[in-house]
């Protein structure tokens, strides 16, 4: 049991290191698009969730959220106030809900994929299907929760920062989900399948 715990902590440390590296290397984990950032840093969180379980996965999600908080505080875009209470744009300030948006969806990214993977494995014993759906589901958990929370908690401020009418905001959010979120989910599904399949095989051999 002690050996197993030590192994898990070493693996957890490696995943944390990968997440931090992706966060600090420009254009790697957060890809700037001017008005927002495309995200692929959630992929090691998804993989960590499946390999290490939901408890460690939630911790990796917290690290993901922490990197987002730091990134949006010290390297902000015009809408960074929705992710950090320490940044403001004119009259638009971040607040407590910024922390909710920054952390809760990202923590769930470390939990949801594990249960999707385990649930689908019970229904159909196919690693390929379960891993792909877990990757897609984890990515969409982040995108759908973040974008909808922005709409509900910062709708008017977000619309003003993007210089659009509030009535057009949800359409713009759906566009972001389609343009950014869907490709991110596809990439997450493919990489989760490829990487997790190799890691799980290695784990069985060990």
From TrEMBL:
<feature type="transmembrane region" description="Helical">
    <location>
        <begin position="12"/>
        <end position="33"/>
    </location>
</feature>
<keyword id="KW-1133">Transmembrane helix</keyword>
<feature type="transmembrane region" description="Helical">
    <location>
        <begin position="73"/>
        <end position="90"/>
    </location>
</feature>
<feature type="transmembrane region" description="Helical">
    <location>
        <begin position="166"/>
        <end position="196"/>
    </location>
</feature>
<keyword id="KW-0472">Membrane</keyword>
<feature type="transmembrane region" description="Helical">
    <location>
        <begin position="129"/>
        <end position="154"/>
    </location>
</feature>
<dbReference type="GO" id="GO:0022857">
    <property type="term" value="F:transmembrane transporter activity"/>
</dbReference>
<feature type="transmembrane region" description="Helical">
    <location>
        <begin position="96"/>
        <end position="117"/>
    </location>
</feature>
<keyword id="KW-0812">Transmembrane</keyword>
<dbReference type="Pfam" id="PF12822">
    <property type="entry name" value="ECF_trnsprt"/>
</dbReference>
<feature type="transmembrane region" description="Helical">
    <location>
        <begin position="39"/>
        <end position="66"/>
    </location>
</feature>
<dbReference type="InterPro" id="IPR024529">
    <property type="entry name" value="ECF_trnsprt_substrate-spec"/>
</dbReference>
<protein>
    <recommendedName>
        <fullName>ECF transporter S component</fullName>
    </recommendedName>
</protein>
């Amino acid at each position: 049991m002690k050996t197993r715990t030590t192994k898990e902590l070493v693996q957890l440390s490696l995943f944390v290191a990968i997440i931090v590296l992706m966060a600090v290397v420009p254009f790697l984990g957060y890809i700037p698009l001017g008005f927002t950032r495309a995200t692929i840093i959630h992929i090691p969180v998804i993989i960590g969730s499946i390999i290490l379980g939901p408890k460690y996965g939630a911790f990796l999600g917290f690290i993901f959220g922490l990197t987002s908080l730091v990134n949006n505080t010290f390297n902000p875009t015009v809408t960074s106030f929705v992710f950090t209470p320490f940044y403001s744009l004119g009259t638009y300030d971040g607040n407590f809900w910024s922390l909710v948006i920054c952390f809760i969806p990202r923590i769930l990214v470390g939990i949801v994929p594990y249960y999707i993977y385990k649930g689908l494995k019970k229904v159909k014993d196919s690693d390929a299907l379960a891993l792909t759906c877990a990757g897609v589901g984890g990515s969409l958990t982040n995108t759908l929760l973040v974008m909808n929370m922005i709409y509900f908690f910062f709708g008017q401020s977000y619309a003003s920062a993007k210089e659009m009418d509030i009535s057009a905001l949800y359409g713009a959010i759906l566009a972001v989900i389609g343009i950014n979120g869907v490709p991110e989910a596809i990439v997450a599904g493919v990489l989760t399948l490829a990487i997790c399949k190799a890691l799980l095989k290695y784990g069985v051999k060990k």
